[in-house]
Every structure is written in structure tokens, then in C-alpha cells.
Known about the structure:
Blueprint: H1 5-12, H2 16-23, H3 31-44, H4 50-57, E1 62-67, H5 73-88, E2 92-97, H6 104-110, E3 117-121, H7 126-135, E4 140-143, E5 153-157, H8 159-172, E6 178-182, H9 188-203, E7 210-213, H10 218-231, E8 237-240, H11 243-255, E9 265-267, E10 284-286, H12 289-305, E11 312-316, E12 319-321
Parallel strand pairs: 1-2, 1-3, 3-4, 4-5, 5-11, 6-7, 6-8, 8-9
Antiparallel strand pairs: 10-12
Helix pairs in contact: 1-2, 1-3, 5-12, 8-9, 10-11
Pfam family, one: LacI
Keywords: DNA-binding, Transcription, Transcription regulation
Organism: Paenibacillus solani
Amino acid sequence: xxxxxxxxxxxxxxxxxxxxxxxxxxxxxxxxxxxxxxxxxxxxxxxxxxxxxxxxxxxxxxxxxxxxxxxxxxxxxxxxxxxxxxxxxxxxxxxxxxxxxxxxxxxxxxxxxxxxxxxxxxxxxxxxxxxxxxxxxxxxxxxxxxxxxxxxxxxxxxxxxxxxxxxxxxxxxxxxxxxxxxxxxxxxxxxxxxxxxxxxxxxxxxxxxxxxxxxxxxxxxxxxxxxxxxxxxxxxxxxxxxxxxxxxxxxxxxxxxxxxxxxxxxxxxxxxxxxxxxxxxxxxxxxxxxxxxxxxxxxxxxxxxxxxxxxxxxxxxxxxxxxxxxxxxxx
Length: 331
């Protein structure tokens, strides 16, 4: 039997009017009551009638999401959180995998009246998107955007702090020869993580073993580490720009019988699904996908209902997750 708004009201012990206000994002509801309603919605697995709500609001009930790839567990987790939060407010999430505004998929979503709002996840060509979205008066939010000039309506991660924290962890363990393998400089995250890495070394008056730029791919980490091995030189630790690069380094070392972390310690970035399944488990910097998705969804909802007129950037701190690739487990 289909769950109705009356069932949610009964479960929460509140009126139908209060439940409706929560679903529609009204700010006049007390936080305690809002939480009761959200808990009841979750327990009953209630899905608001998006079609009816869209007619009442004169909107489509659809939020667009443009992402460059879904072959990334970090992106997958952010999308999952966005979908769940928006569904609670009666919106469907339409996903487009696109590399630029000129693609058919992106063009379809941005056409007038197709979506009520749009989220850009780690976009490229973000300037072009923003110009078009503003022209069409479509509310938007950026996640992990590349240019600080576009931070007005965005959710970003403090990648400088992430790079600094990862490197400081290795320094605190006594490492004095640390390499950094990063992604391409077109990515803001690459530049910020490298800056944090260099600052941590600077504070100890140390120079990096080596800094090399490449792709966020397993092959990049593997090939660079193989080159070091062929040259007969290795750092005592590696800070990799993401978990894929870290995995490539680890594979090359283990093939040669070099122990991790006893001989070379490794830190990754993102805390992708695979990082806790490797042997040894990978120390990494976690980007809190639940907080990122929630913050972006809430910002877009406020923009769509007109309660957020002025821009505001939400900057979220990453978290160092210490595992076996830097610290030998206690016996």
C-alpha cells in the first residue's frame, strides 16, 4: 500500500501542514519538528508526489547533474547523497555524463524548462556553463570547481589542508625523502594538494624527493615507481594525488618484494572503495561525500525556492584516515 503524507503526519506526531512545510523546505518549521518529519519519511520510505508538487509550483520537479565520469567511487558516493536528499524534497535527479557544454547531453539538460536547477560536479569549462545558466536564469551549484573566481555558489574541499595533513603525517613518522605524484595542473585540487605538500616540507626545511605530474590513473603511479626502481633510487614515502596513483605505486613496489610501509610508506587521497580492500590497507585522505552532497543539495534547494539570493561558498575539511600503508599494525 502506498505511503501518503497522512501516514507521515501520524508517524511523526505532527500535522499534515507541518509535514508539507518540511517537504517544501519552509524555514518556519522548528528544527526539532523538522527532524521528526525527516525520520518518519525515512522510516516509511515516503516519496512525495513529484508531479503534483511540480504542478503546484509551476516547475518540472527535476534537478540536473552534470559530471565528467561515473567511473569513480568518490563521484558515485556524492551522487548517491544528492539523489537521496533531493528525493526527500520531491525532486528527481537527471544525470548527464558530459565533458563540456557543447555535448548533446549537457545541451538537453540546460534547455529552457528542462530542469529547475543544476549541479555541476567537478566541472571542466565551468565558465561557459555559468554564462549559459545565468542567461537562462537556472539556479546552479558547483561541487569541486576549478576556479576560485566561481566560488559564489559552490561546495569545495580544503585540498590544501588535505595535502598538508598527509605530508605532515609522513614527516611525523620520521620520513625525510618524500615524493609527490599528482594529477594534471588543470585541476584546482592538484594545485592545492601540492601547495599543502610543499608547505609541510618547507616548515621542516626539506625539499621533495621528486614531484611529478600525470593522470589520476593506476598506470601513472606504476610507471613512475618502475622508473625509480630501474634507476636504483626510491623515496622513503610517497604522497599520491589520489588512491589510483597510490595503488599503482604499491603494485610496482610489491612486484619487486619491497615492503610497504617498512621500506616505503604510501598515502593516497579520496578514500575510494578500493583503499580499504588493498593489502596493506591504504592510508588516505577522505573527502566526506555525505557532507559534500548534503551541502550542495541544501544550497541548490535554497536557490530554487528563492531564499538564497547572495552567494556563499561552503568549504569542507578532509580527514586523514591512517591505515597500514604508513603505520605497521601492532602485533
